[in-house]
Amino acid sequence: MLLLFTVILVALIFNYTNGFHDTANAIATVVGTKVLTPRQAIILATITNLLGAMVGAAVAKTIASGLVDANFIAPDFASEMLVCALLAAITWNLLTWYFGLPSSSSHALIGGLVGAAIAAAHDNWHAIIWYKLPEAGKHWWMGSGVLYKVVIPMMISPVLGFLLAFILMTFLYVMLHKVRPQKVARVFGRLQLVSSAYMGFSHGTNDAQKSMGIIALALVAATKAGTLDGLPGWLGFLKTSDPLPGKAMEIALWIKILCSLTMAAGTASGGWRIIKTLGHKLVKLQPVHGFAAETAGATVLLGTAAMGMPVSTTHVITSAIMGVGASKRLSALKWPVVKRILWAWVLTLPACAGLGYVLVCLVRLAFTAG
Hints:
The protein has 13 helices and no strands. With 370 residues, the chain is mainly α. The longest helix is centred in the C-terminal third of the chain and has 35 residues.
């Protein structure tokens, strides 16, 4: 029982550090354009993230039952595996946060989960659901597993964010080239409030759900192992059964609220480093640029969340900001910063997978020695 509550606690700590990164990404542009103060943007992000997290749970279901085959993981070791996966992701989040790099908390968590699951299954790679082909006549995104839900979206979503922002910003340049700059700034200062709320809502439908999936997965494992059998009646809501064959796991309302509020607290306490990189260092932003970047990024996030794809808010909004900058001229981008961000993206999955694997091996050694 203590180990189960440890998993939930560590999952919430991950969600808190996720607030440093990903919710900060969601509000970086509205702060960078000075439409809102950091405090005002955080309040807006808190409300819209909570609303987004309440709408559907496709991403949480993917994390809980679409990436790891629990049949290969001993039920009495599942909690240890999840703690190791979360610690790997938290370590990476803190490291990249310290250096102000907007890396992906989503991919950090997935990488840690993949590495920890393989180690927990005694190097049985089948513990990871690499791919499940979609049913006949359905498109590729109807499939499941790491390939369809993580790898392909990881490559496509930043490209979509860049192209959509580039096209939207180019269209706005054409439409507004005769309008006085003061009027453009005034109008899009108001419109950016809408696009920022849209971004926060879309972020909630995607990122706020990752820890929800981990907590649900831990509760299922604890229920199967019999850990929750002796609970008093008022704690009966913790018992969570495996989903029926062919069905995704349902995420309880209390898990959604708890994870959403924890992420908001993380944003309020430590998000400024990432906001500074995206809102000030990457490209000089005006309200019209922020509107285009947020609208493009939010649209990509909302679409992928509807398909249960845990994509990176970091990748999407950063590439959208790059697309906005490139629509002006390529030299508008600050390429040394872009290069550092890209390296963080490339290293996140393998680094966290390796760390998750090592942590599980260390826990096994400790149990053996004990």
